[in-house]
Amino acid sequence: MLKHSGRGHNPSSKTTAEGECTILCPACPHPGKNLPTDWKESPWQWLYVLFLAIDANFQLKRKAVSNDNVDPSLSCGWGYFVEEEAYKSFLHSSADCIQEVLYINMDYLFFSTLHHTVLHTLNVSYDIACQWHKTLWHCMSHQDCLVFVLKFHLPTHIEQCQTSFSFNFKSRVGRTDGEAPGCLGSSNTNFFD
């Protein structure tokens, strides 16, 4: 991983920052890279919105997993996985003080993703956004965050969810289905280096 990120022969590779080995999405807005210098003053702020698609496979928790001594993490949070010690510490401390821990894993992953963004507006799609967002707001001061249920999952929801969390009834999101941001991650080229 370090070699492919240009860090393999770097003498300071022990100081590789969290997320430094990830590939930036060329379609996502990145200030200083693919946005105009005056983007914050633009009257068309809806053009500079980050679309996030959340998807998770919780079936993996049923797999037989070895322990950290046998299978230690090699990334320390450099890539697409969070730093393990910080994550475990968060889980232990939050379990004591938060009564609603149903979405605690997804909350941590979501806020870890937002840690490096400076954008003011977010559009987040998740197949259970109608439930997940209820406990999200006590953790988040971000005012411009819209949550949606992915179009493929929407017909299985009740009518109230279908109208409240549909991309079809919100302005300035285009003909988005919510699945596409997750599908664009197949590129292995970093366009911003």
Description:
The protein has 193 residues and is of the alpha/beta class. The protein is built from five helices and three strands, in the order E-H-H-E-H-E-H-H. It has a three-stranded parallel sheet. Strand 2, helix 3 and strand 3 form a beta-alpha-beta unit. The two termini are 16 Å apart.
Structural class: alpha/beta
Characterize the main sheet: 3 strands, parallel
Low-confidence stretches: 184-193
Classify the beta-strand content into a percent band: 5-15%
What share of the residues lie within helices? 10-25%
Shape: globular
How far apart, in Å, are the first and last alpha carbons?
A: 16 Å
Average per-residue pLDDT, rounded, comes to 76
Instruction: Count all strands and give the number.
Output: 3
How many helix segments? 5
Query: Which series of helices and strands comes N to C?
Result: EHHEHEHH
